[in-house]
Amino acid sequence: MDWKWKTIIEPFKIKSVEPLGFTTREERLKILNAAHYNLFNIRAEKVLIDLLTDSGTGAMSAAQWGGIMIGDESYAGARSYYTFEREVKGLTGFAEIIPVHQGRAAEKILFGVIGGRGKYIISNSHFDTTRANVEFSGAQAVDFPVKEALDFDKPAPFKGNADITAMEKFINEKGAKNIPLCVMTVTNNSLGGQPVSMENLKAAQNLCRKHGIPLFLDCARFAENAYFIKLREKGYAQCPVREIAQEMFELADGAWMSSKKDALVNIGGFLAMNNRDWSAKARQMLILTEGFNTYGGLAGRDLEAIAIGLREVLDENYLQYRIRSAQYLGEGLLKRGVPIINPPGGHGVYVNARKFLPHLKPQRFPAQSLACALYLEGGIRGVEIGTLMFGRRDAKNNFLAAPMELVRLAMPRRVYTQSHIDYVIEVLGALAKKKKTIKGLEVVEAPKVLAHFTAKLKPAGGRSA
Ligand code: F0G
Predict the structure, then answer these.
(1) Which residue is closest in CA terms to ligand 1's atom 9?
(2) Distance from CA of residue 382 to its chain's centroid?
(3) 36 an active-site residue?
(4) If you write DSSP's letter for every residue of 332-387 in order, what string do you get?
(5) pTM score
(6) Which residue out of 82, 89, 128, 315 is catalytically annotated?
(7) Counting atoms of ligand 1 from 1, which one is nearest the CA of 269?
(8) Is there a catalytic annotation at residue 210?
(9) Ligand 1, atom 2: nearest CA belongs to which residue?
């Protein structure tokens, strides 16, 4: 790509617009109180800039909307399925392509087939739903991030990598026969949306081959990962990003995808593999829980939109803009004294609330407090990844400190422009100046499981403004 200018522009023009939800500070204080300081309880129309997730929140292209109109809604053998299958096969090279309604449906089916008590699934890092589905099957999910992943301040090119030496030690301890799968999450969402290098994927493949363990990719953000390889890994600068993605898939025996991310659609996913024994079992589960083989919980039109999105996402003008947007937000925040996981990942920026608000103890939920302060200050919604989300409790039901206190600012794809991001930087910059005034929170009530979605909180020691 030949772009000599400093300004990276949005590589699209806007055909259809939606109004933003403007509110006053006074209104937001009332809304926060009514929502019990839990941003999941706030109506989206009361949010100005919604950075809760990049999942299913992207804008489809005119071509995708066109695809929606030609979707074939036949129950069996729909043309749209074959369009989708051809596209996913062309990209991933896998033989068995199973559509599902979203990523966690693929996880539920796969771990239903290969999980179970006494088994271990190993990974660079499992995403929450992956871990939950592994554990639901009775197996254990074990993460092997590299050490630099946990040093948030120090930049490194591939903080999403797995610690292959630690993985091998674990395999030798537990026995390969008890480890039915190794999964590499690309990019590594739980640890900042950081990329995995091709070198690390190759090392994972070698390790898995040596021990006879199948290797899968959780490829929700495969295109962002491939673009980082192009930018940062030796030997890939001249390689088309589609070929880099294909090389990533060639190293694996299968993959699953939440298409709500890098397929640029609002719903969808797939499970893909070469193992016909596993796929036959998976298809039985599919029919039981999702739908028939040729739609799997989706409408024909969704399959069309995914097929188009999987091509569009590999457009390098799009990826340049996408990765630059997160970097731009990250740089702006660092300049204003807001600590982040550095460098920013592919799909957003993770603010290090522990470092930002050292006056708040984990039991005062610093990341949740910051997320609420950000909403109050500017109507911006991020998500807490900290003591509330990890949700571990002691015998007296007190929350135990999580290993990190982060606020994820995830960027929906093709939705916000640079001025929206400038606004986010300005609001967080203003908060940085008065961060000592940000008070902590305490829990009023919280369920045992997945507390962060429904917990009720309040400002610790009285009302805060
Ligand atoms: N794997 C990864 C790496 C993910 O980030 C997600 C979802 C899933 C699997 C599950 O897919 O939502 O389609 O069922 N991540 C969203 C997020 C929810 O906000 O990061 P799903």
Answers:
(1) 103
(2) 13
(3) no
(4) HHHHTT--BSSS--SSEEEEEHHHH-TTS-GGG-HHHHHHHHHHHHHSEE-EEESH
(5) 0.96
(6) 128
(7) 13
(8) no
(9) 127
Task: Sketch out the chain's domains with CATH numbers.
Answer: 25-54+315-459 (3.90.1150.10), 62-312 (3.40.640.10)
Output the CA–CA distances (angstroms, integers) from residue 430 to 350, 354, 377, 408, 433, in the order listed.
18, 18, 9, 18, 5
- Annotated active-site residue 218? The verdict is yes
DSSP-derived pairing of the beta strands 383-385 and 380-381: unpaired
Q: Please indicate whether residue 12 is annotated as part of the active site.
A: no
Mutate to test the pocket of ligand 1, among 108, 123, 127 (most ligand atoms within 8 A of CB): 127
Residue 268 CA to residue 258 CA, distance in Å, equals 6
Reported as a single tens digit per residue, the pLDDT across 160-175 is: 999 999 999 999 999 9
Distance CA 52, CA 375 (A): 11
The 3-state DSSP composition of the chain as helix, strand, coil percent (nearest 5) reads 45, 15, 40
Look up tokens 């079992």; give the residue.
Answer: 281
- Tell the residue number behind the tokens 């929350």, with chain if given: 399
Model confidence over 402-453: pLDDT tens digits? 999 999 999 999 999 999 999 999 999 999 999 999 999 999 999 887 788 9
Q: Is 152 a catalytic residue?
A: no
Residue 464 has pLDDT above 80, yes or no: no
For residue 129, how far is its CA from the centre of ligand 1 (angstroms)? 7
- Summarised one tens digit per residue, pLDDT across range 80-120 is 999 999 999 999 999 999 999 999 999 999 999 999 999 99
The verdict on whether 230 is a catalytic residue reads: no
- Encoding tokens for residue 183? 């999964």
Structure tokens at 102: 């979203």
Identify whether the C-beta of residue 210 lies closer than 8 Å to the C-beta of residue 267.
no
Please answer whether residues 150 and 135 qualify as being in contact, where contact means their C-beta atoms are separated by less than 8 angstroms.
no
Ligand 1 pocket residues where CB is under 6 Å = 53, 55, 102-104, 127, 129-130, 185, 189, 218, 220, 258, 260, 269
Q: Which residue, by CA, sits nearest to atom 19 of ligand 1?
A: 53
- Residue of the CA atom closest to atom 1 of ligand 1: 127
Q: Which ligand 1 atom sits closest to the C-alpha of 259?
A: 13
- First vs last Cα of the chain: how many Å apart? 49
